[in-house]
């Protein structure tokens, strides 16, 4: 597809000096997300933000893929002035097939110490752990590019930052001839559809039954996503959609 990109948005790989800005964007972007509100019912503390920032650029084992953290900068209207990081994306690339003993591994639940005292660890492990299980189930050990996170600062939406990041990722996947995988929140679903992602599964988490949480006015729990594939989610479930963009034909 042809994407009209904002000339004031410049995409680059993130560097450690960006950690604080990235952490602030993550917390701002996720603040209205129903699952984030369950995981952090009293908000995210400064201590937890610091832990998150410190973990961003830690090396990962080769078996967990090749990581790319990419940010779009908003360029100033004139020639002077600083650039502003307005969004963030985290990608994981698997260039080669992996044996089953490499990818079919039970995920170790996160602990309170790792996540911070303000995190509801049970909610985190049920939700994030469930999404990761779905990813393993569908991707298996096949080569591919995974979009783990894409968020935009709330007061910088509709500038094309999300589209610029998806253009970066889809271009890389097409150059390598690889499929792309992601788990979509309800709010990002239509954007991913525009870039050729297809529904392959859903993860309907029964958050009312598990945690007693009820839908608040104005919240989107995914009632209108992946309806052709799975029908509407059951009452009290929050739906994430597992999506795949096929490899470009050569």
TrEMBL record:
<protein>
    <recommendedName>
        <fullName>N-acetyltransferase domain-containing protein</fullName>
    </recommendedName>
</protein>
<dbReference type="InterPro" id="IPR052523">
    <property type="entry name" value="Trichothecene_AcTrans"/>
</dbReference>
<dbReference type="InterPro" id="IPR016181">
    <property type="entry name" value="Acyl_CoA_acyltransferase"/>
</dbReference>
